[in-house]
Design goal:
Blueprint (H helix, E strand, L loop, with lengths): L3 H18 L1 H41 L3 E6 L3 E8 L1 H7 L11 H13 L2 E6 L8 E7 L1
Antiparallel strand pairs: 1-2, 2-4, 3-4
Helix pairs in contact: 1-2, 1-3, 2-4
Length: 139
Amino acid sequence: MIPSDHFVRFYNEVFKALDKKSSQDLRAYWDEVGRQQAEVLAKPFRKGGLKACYDYWSRIIREENCEAEVELTNEYFEFRMLRCPSLSKVLDNDAEPFERYCEHCSGWITPVMEQCGLRVEFNIGDPHEPACSFRIYYQ
């Protein structure tokens, strides 16, 4: 298994290379990641709605050692990334971070949510600051 320090560096360079070739190639890559994620997540998200989102991202916080907070209300689920481990590793890298690196999350999350009858809104902010948030709503 490739260590996450190496993986995010690789990911960063793949994003740069695909975008340099064509922004459509990068979009196609993120769409494929979304398709694969939907194979795993669409059914539980459709069935469990916002609670399933809360359960999934609560687990991700533990598994990926994120500094993050989650909130579940009757109207929305919110994920607040206080310190993204992925972007933090990219920023600690000696290579230049890809300017649109943070878009990879919205790149795969948005199509998954759309398949599940959910809507997501992102607040990415500064792409050089490893913090962001998103809210998921019922459509």
